[in-house]
Design brief:
The protein is mainly α. Among the domains are: 77 residues, Tetratricopeptide repeat domain (Serine Threonine Protein Phosphatase 5, Tetratricopeptide repeat, Alpha Horseshoe), CATH 1.25.40.10; 66 residues; 34 residues. The chain is 70% helix and 5% strand. It is built from 19 helices and 5 strands. The strands form 2 sheets. It has a 3-stranded antiparallel β-sheet, with no helix packed on it. A two-stranded antiparallel ribbon has the order 1-2. α10 packs parallel to α12 and α15 packs antiparallel against α16. The radius of gyration is 44 Å and the shape is rod-shaped. It starts with a helix and ends in a 9-residue tail after the last strand. The relative contact order is 0.04.
Amino acid sequence: MRRVFRWLVVAILVVAAAWWVAGLPGSVTVSLAGTTVQMATSLALLGAAVVVALLTVLLRLLGWFFRTPGRVGAWRMRRRRVAGDAAVTGALVALAASDERRALENATRARRMLGDTPQTLLLAAEAARLAKADTEAAALYRTLADHKEAALLGLRGLYRQAVNRQAWDEAALGARRAEEVHPGGAWLREERTELAVRTGNWTEALRLAPPEAPRAAFATAAADAEADPDAALRLAKRAWRDNPDFVPAALAYARRLRAAGREGKAVGVIREAWERAPQPELAEFALAPETDPLARARAAERLVEVNPTHVESHLLLARVALEAGLIGQARRHLDAARAAGLNQRRLWLLQADLEAAEGGETEAGRQAQREALRRAAAAEPDPTWRCDACGAEHGEWHPRCPVCQTAGRIRWGTPRLALPAA
């Protein structure tokens, strides 16, 4: 209804304007090349309006004619853009589906339609990597690395290729270049930390590691790898302070204190570690300076004063007492360990040694030894260094598991028992 009203108003205005023009008085005379034309004013205005309208139409036709090539080019560019975008989408889908053939086809088509943009170069490089065309992928990554705004994309691809080849020097160089073009990136920091772990650069790993990383393990490994005694002492102390319950850190710190002539401080660190988490290697370190069996037994008694009821304390005292010929004392501590619930192979083997020392070659002694050995065969396994990530067991602590390469996951504990077959 409103549209009808508007058109009615327009029509009324047009009719009114025409009526007004038709009623204008006078005439218009035009002389051109000896020809004179005289007409009424209303007709002159109408003629002028027609001429203006024709000129407008002519100018629009000329403009359309001259703009046609540009419009055709823009139309073709739009078609290429649409086709290129479709190829990019197809390449992304193919990469997600690990379809290397379609990924290569769509990436090639995207480059042909859109040119070598950072997006198409990255798609082509990823497609080549998926197809295991490493040389072609590396060339594309290098082209990306030379691109001012997309250099990180190329450097990350080159870094990943170097890691896959275990070309650690090349990977380290790529990581440094990536840090230069994009400093402080979380991904880069994580990758550089992993690279430092892989190459055994523990000082660098410690510097880059986030708070939740196994920093005590990194600091302990860095201390073991450090040639400067003072720097090694500082690193070991840092590891021990970061995690006083971590036995390798306590041992690393105590070893360097002993090497520096600070025996009292070294023993104090071991005693504190024994109070927190008793472990046989701590006792081995503490008793190493003593060679006399009775002196070793007294040193062991001083060590376990801070945690006398722990089964490790009873086992240690039983072993050193047996070495010193203190049979009764050794039996008392073995009985205490057994009463505490310990049923491991090492306890029964020590029991067999005790029975051999006490009973000798008597029938009762041999019978007691056989019983202890029988119990040892059926006992729980002894604790050992074990990787929490893969379950691999090791004879000594490592900062990185030699089997699965996971850092900071090797801990002292009882091995996993195999489940019986169903």
